[in-house]
């Protein structure tokens, strides 16, 4: 791809005109002045030496100048081999010192020469210099056309060396007013890195690009921007790491440390030029910047530059969609969803629907139960355009099924919940018929079946998912272990966890280690569980001491939650063992990590209740519910404490338990407590039904929640 950049051919004008020198008379590819006679016929029939002699006689040119003009004619006719042979006869290296002196002499003068100025016979005129520079450039182009790109780059480099040695501080103002030196130099400046790239010498190419940018060469804004963009492209995609040379490391600690940082800096400069209208909008700049910032994880910066794009570059739907992708990648899914809602809002009703936005909105909503109903709407909109979205139908049914399941778990009415659960499985099964090879779909199907306590189907799908990902998914192993634990096969579940430990990633390993400890508690092995928790905490502590800059925010958050849960589990073990002080220490540790945590205050209430401090326990449960009003374990525990205050509190306890079952219908603890309330109230038949429900749910309850 990079090599294609060098394919552009320059168009060269007629030979330059110079007073009292080689170009005193008009000369073009089609003919000479009246003194030249029938030049076309001579050129067609004569050899190079005869043509050169004719040129010299006709225009009073010296040997090199005549060859430069003849070579130009050959190049313009497409005779690249002949042009190279003509240019090869010019002693460029012998003429370079004279050319350098001529340029130096010209830059010392404050005004250009006029016809009346006397020129020393030894001094080369600027037009002669321009003609010879053009000859070198055309020689390089001819070599490139002949496939000798490396030699072409070396020839082109002579132009830069010559002019740079004469003007080490950059191009002098006004140098291009009466000659073509600046024009030839600019063409060589842009051509050289492209030749090195085409030759496969990316180190030399990058050095040539940097050489073009470190001094003021009077490039026009668009050409300068083109050089900057091409350098950023080679830095990003070239696959060669080249640090800045010491003389260019002038920003101290802010100096780019690698290719990516240097490319991003160049693209930032280009975007600023676009914003200030110095250069035209170039979509490639935005594409390169998107790639560079994406692989660097700087998605918020990318969003800022998308917002800076001038109106008309993107339409509103495209801009919102692009921004939502940036914010989602940065972990700000709420901001992303707010933007996607605008795409589906009333203001866009008259425009053509932007289906990628609806598709992405359904995906984001499927990841957050709070937005389940919005996800259903997004998915239905995409499905309604089935003629345009045939390739996405499997994905849409998958997201629709996940959102139906999430909506069912948050539903208030039992009848509506049943309908949503049926729709969830129907949509997921429909998706599996379309895209049965999608591992994410199979996992979602396994999870939904597990939540609805279809354990056989959940087990089959979990096994299928593990096979599809070759056992490399920690969450797949965890779900499989939980399904097995729901069948009271704790030892088998522990074996699955042990197998998964070697295949899982770092965070997954920590979660599996906690699951193993919970399974040991279920097998009534508290000592082994405590030892497992000790290992887990030591691993978390060791990983915390790593350089935080290398750790993603999501990983740090996951470790924080896991550490809190570990201290809570330890507090539960010590509470059952009636080791009150140890339990209090563990809860204090958990509160130091997250004080405003409903689960922390719930565990505190359990500890106080175990010590028969019922009023204090009720206060802790109340604090937990103030933090999270729908936290089911605290609702059930509050009802349990109220039951101990006598028959007067039973209606309130029943109300709490009914609320808990509304939020979590499969909570066997809530059904059990509701049966006890009914029994205390004398409703024995109703109590028996509640106890039966609690028993059946307990038989299929996992050791941890599936969700």
Number of helices: 33
Helix content: 55-70%
The beta-strand count equals: 0
Which regions contain 5 or more consecutive residues with pLDDT less than 50?
1-47, 54-60, 115-119
Q: Which overall shape is indicated by the principal axes computed on the Cα atoms?
A: elongated
Radius of gyration: 39 Å
Mind describing the biggest β-sheet?
A: none
Head-to-tail CA distance between termini: 47 Å
Structural class: mainly alpha
Estimate what percentage of residues fall within beta strands.
under 5%
Mean pLDDT: 84
Can you walk through the features of this model?
- The structure is a single chain.
- The protein has helices at residues 39-45, 48-59, 63-76, 80-88, 92-108, 126-145, 149-166, 181-198, 202-213, 221-237, 259-275, 283-296, 299-308, 316-329, 333-343, 355-366, 372-384, 393-409, 414-434, 439-451, 455-468, 474-486, 490-501, 506-522, 526-544, 553-576, 580-593, 598-610, 614-627, 632-643, 650-663, 668-681, 684-699.
- It starts with 38 loop residues before the first helix and ends in an 8-residue tail after the last helix.
- Mean pLDDT is 84; it is low at 1-47, 54-60 and 115-119.
- It is mainly α and 707 residues long.
Summarize the structure.
With 707 residues, this protein is mainly α. It contains 33 helices and no strands. α7 (149-166) runs antiparallel to α8, α16 (355-366) runs parallel beside α18 (393-409) and α23 packs antiparallel against α24.
